[in-house]
Structure formats: C-alpha cells, structure tokens
UniProtKB/TrEMBL annotation:
InterPro entries: ICAM_VCAM, ICAM_VCAM_N, Ig-like_dom, Ig-like_dom_sf, Ig-like_fold. One of its GO terms (molecular function) is integrin binding. It comes from Lates calcarifer (Barramundi). GO terms for biological process: cell-cell adhesion. Keywords: Cell adhesion, Disulfide bond, Glycoprotein, Immunoglobulin domain, Membrane, Repeat, Signal, Transmembrane, Transmembrane helix. This is Uncharacterized protein LOC108893378 isoform X1.
Length: 508
C-alpha cells in the first residue's frame, strides 16, 4: 500500500512537470507581469550574438521562490534546470527575431517574468563605393553624389555609414529600416567639389554599432578608394559665357531650428534629430550638419532642385549612450555657392539645447511624448467618379503618436469638407485611416482634393502645431490609378508644412 502511494505521488509529480512545461511553451507572454518585485534575472541581461554562433545564458530566481514553478517561454534550443537556475543553450543561432522570457509562477497562477532582448547580427558581405550617375573627371564648384552600397547586413538599423574625403569625414548616415534579417541598402551623400579635391581619394566605411554587449571593437567593413580628378576649367563643348563666372541667385535662411521626434530621451535608444531650415534658396546648395557638442554627427543635403525659397526639414537618426547626458545638440545650415559665391559661405545655426534625458521646456508642465507622422496620403474608395453620387475620401496617416491628439481635415480646393479625430488611446505610433463621405456635383470637375494631419499637443507642445499634408490631385471624374480595379488607391508622396520643433530659433 505504501509503495502504491509513493508510485502515485511520483506519477502525479511527473504529470505536473509535463503539464507545466506544456503550459510554458504555450503561455501567452503578455499575461505575465514584467514589473513585479524579485523577478527572474537573466545573465547577461541583453544578448548580442552573431548569426550561426552558439549561445549560453542563465536565468535565476531567488532562493525564497525555489518551491515555485519556473521556466522559459518562447525559446529555441535546449535548457537545463538546476535548483533556482536555468541554463539556456543554443548550439547555433539561426533565428533573426527572437525574444526569450523567463517566468516563475505561484500557487495562484500569478506569473512574474523577465524578457531577454536578443540581437542577432551579421556583418556586411562587402561594401561598394561609386559616384552616382557620373563617370570621368569632376568639375570644380559642381555638386556630385557619393553612393555607398552595403551588402547583406543585419540589423541594418544598427549600421553607421561614414563617407570620407581622404581622411576627413564628410558625413555620417543611418538607416530607418527596422528589418531584422540581412538586407542590402544604399546610402547617398551630396557634396560640392573644390580645386583642392584633385587627386583626393573618396571612400566609405560601414560600422555595425551593437552597444556595450556587442563585439568590441564594432565590426567595420570599408569600400575600395576612388581617386578623383577635378578640372578647374569648363568641360569641352561648354559655352565659356555660361561657365563658372555667374554668381547663382540665392537667399539665406530666415531661421534654423532643431528638435527631437520624442519629448523624452532614454539611453541606448534610437531617436531622430530634426533640423528645420526656413525659406532658403537654392536649397540644393544647402549643407546641414548636426552636432552633439562640438562633434559632427552627420551631414546632409537636399535633392530638391527648386530655385525659389523653400522650407525644408532634415532628419538624422542617433543612438544615445549614457555619456550623452547633458550633451548640447544643435544644427548648422551652410549655403555653399562655389568660389563665385560669398566667401566665407553663409552660415546660420540653431540654438543649442542640453539632453538631460528630457527636451527643455519653458514651462514646468511635461512636454507630451510625440512622433510626427511618417507620411499622409489621400485616396478614393473607387477608381472612377461620376457626378451626383456619393464617394468616400480616405486619408491615411502613417505612424503617428499619440493618435488621439491628431486632427484630420479633408479639403476640396481651399474649402474644408470635414474634420475628424480618432478615439484610439494608444500612446505608441500607429497608422490610422480616416474616411469622409462626399456627394459630387458638376462644379467639382477639376477640384483638387487633399487632407491635412495636425498634431495638437496643447500649449506645452510645439507651436505652431505639427502639420503634414497629403499630395493634391484633381478630379476630372477619374481618380488617378494604375489599375481599373475599384480598390482604394493611395498616393505615397508627401511634404512637410508649418513644422516647428520644440526648440524653434527666433528670428532676430
């Protein structure tokens, strides 16, 4: 009888363990408390591993929880439990997206857990460098575009590409692509040639910055170097009267201002610096440099060939470190018009602000955390329009936060057709589509339809509020479409208007 009881107890324990393992495998991680006291501890707390390499991590709980059930969720490979510690091992990491969770569960099914962020990386296969859409000698005082192509790298959002002229860094760029698998990406940087550039070698460098847990020093792959020949005289066949004797018509910026895409800054995160240059011409000759203290973080130029004064916003992604606390960020706009233009070139800088992990404010009220839309696009619900019918306008606002502070206005010409707001209380960036029904009239033939997205963040937010508009299109009773199928057709081109960062420079 005693043996039978012992056997039954052992069988019950085995079934309980099997049931727990099955539960942990199928457990929905979102129902587990990540903010509980004495949660499990991963060592290391963040994992950076090269694709194909082995992995070894431990998860431990306090001795007082040794009678609790605990285990791993959403893991690959094998794990071994020894008292209050679990050893997780993978012989060869072959997953690009992975997040392992360690939980302990009490008798009331309360789950306390920790998540282990895992970054799987792959250095570039190679890096190639060229002059975009150009071959042969360069002409002094002209603008050219450098191109750096990085092949099969992951994750590309951690890649920093630096362009060099000799040993001088011309600019530094990062990607907005959040794809975790290997991708090939092209980075471009425009510059103006000088006579002294003759014989100088141009090249680029790709560095994979993975933080303190990543490989040290970071993996770096460089391109081959290309020597430049710069001619100081017009190319054969050029009319001397139209050569470099003409001074371009220009207008210095009215103001330059800098801001962040979010109101609060945390270390080891990626943020976007925004530099707004107001009413400058020609904008293609403008060089914008971002600074952290006295260190140049990156240099950008516009592809806009408009000769009249325009307002343009330049953006640069940065990865914060603990050492950045208190660093002053600012940007500089330089109008490079060649040797015939003003010497030295016209320069205007934004005001500087420090980064004590919070954007400065003129009020004690916290500035709301926000993100402007990536783009705004407009479309119809059908590909063909007839008069005296009802149709639905659609306005798609991509990746905006907080969406509940967004006001979307539909326009027919300069007439506001309707204004909408979202009931979504999600604080993280979301993409939302707003719709408005309209009844067409004969007089609507040729009217331009468009929509405007305004992020109203109250007096503590940017003033004037952030505004992004869609492209405008006319309605000759047919909506532009690449297909005759009656499905929503969105236009993806967009432009910024009336954007003013939180630290806008006042025009003196």
């Amino acid at each position: 009888m005693v043996l039978s009881l012992v056997f039954l107890k052992r069988m019950f324990f085995i079934l309980l363990v099997i049931s727990l393992m099955s539960f942990l495998r199928d457990f929905h991680v979102s129902s587990c408390d990540e903010y509980c006291p004495d949660k499990p501890v991963f060592n290391p707390s963040r994992l950076v591993v090269k694709y194909g390499d082995p992995v070894s991590v431990t998860c431990s709980i306090r001795q007082s929880y040794q009678d609790y059930f605990f285990g791993l969720v959403d893991f690959m490979g094998n794990h071994t439990k020894n008292g209050t510690t679990i050893l997780w091992e993978v012989q060869r990491m072959t997953e690009w997206r992975t997040l392992t969770t360690c939980c302990h569960i009490n008798a009331t099914d309360y789950c306390c857990c920790s998540k282990l962020p895992v970054t799987v990386y792959k250095p570039p296969d190679n890096v190639s460098f060229s002059f975009r859409n150009h071959s042969g000698p360069l002409l002094e005082g002209h603008q050219y575009t450098l191109q750096c192509e990085v092949h099969n790298v992951a994750p590309v959002e951690n890649l920093i590409v630096t362009f060099y002229r000799g040993q001088t860094a011309l600019g530094q760029l990062q990607s907005n692509n959040i794809e975790k698998k290997p991708v090939t990406e092209i980075f471009t940087l425009s510059f103006n040639t000088k006579k002294e550039d003759d014989g100088v070698q141009y090249w680029c460098e790709a560095k994979l910055e993975l933080g303190p847990e990543g490989p040290q020093p970071p993996p770096v792959v460089t391109s081959e170097k290309l020597s430049a020949t710069v001619n100081s005289t017009p190319a054969p066949g050029t009319n001397p009267s139209t050569s470099s004797t003409l001074i371009p018509s220009f207008k210095p910026p009215d103001s330059v201002s800098i801001g962040f895409n979010y109101g609060r800054m945390l270390k080891y995160r990626q943020y976007t610096l925004l530099c707004k240059v107001q009413k400058v011409a020609p904008v293609e000759n403008l060089i914008v440099t971002f600074y952290g203290g006295q260190t140049a973080l990156g240099q950008l130029q516009s592809n806009n060939t408009e000769k009249k004064p325009v307002t343009e916003i330049f953006t640069l992604n940065i990865n914060t470190k603990k050492e950045d606390d208190g660093v002053q960020y600012w940007c500089e706009a330089k109008l490079e018009l060649g040797p015939e233009g003003p010497q030295p070139p016209l320069v205007l800088t934004s005001e500087k602000f420090s980064s004590p992990w919070t954007i400065p404010s003129t009020s004690s009220t916290p500035i709301p955390s926000f993100k402007p839309p990536d783009s705004v696009s407009i479309g119809f619900n059908y590909g063909r329009m007839l008069k005296y019918r009802q149709y639905t306008l659609l306005c798609k606002v991509q990746k905006v936060a907080p969406v509940e502070n967004l006001t979307v206005t539909f326009y027919g010409g300069q007439t506001a057709l309707g204004q909408l707001q979202s009931n979504n209380t999600e604080k993280k960036p979301v993409t939302e589509i707003f719709t408005l029904n309209i009844n067409t009239k004969k007089e609507d033939d040729g009217v331009q339809y468009w929509c405007e997205a305004k992020l109203e963040l109250r007096p503590e937010g940017p003033q004037p509020p952030l505004v992004l508009t869609s492209e405008k299109f006319s309605s000759p009773w047919t909506i532009p479409s690449t297909s005759s199928t009656p499905i929503p057709s969105f236009k993806d081109r967009q432009h910024w208007v009336n954007y003013s960062p939180t630290t806008q420079r006042r025009n003196q």
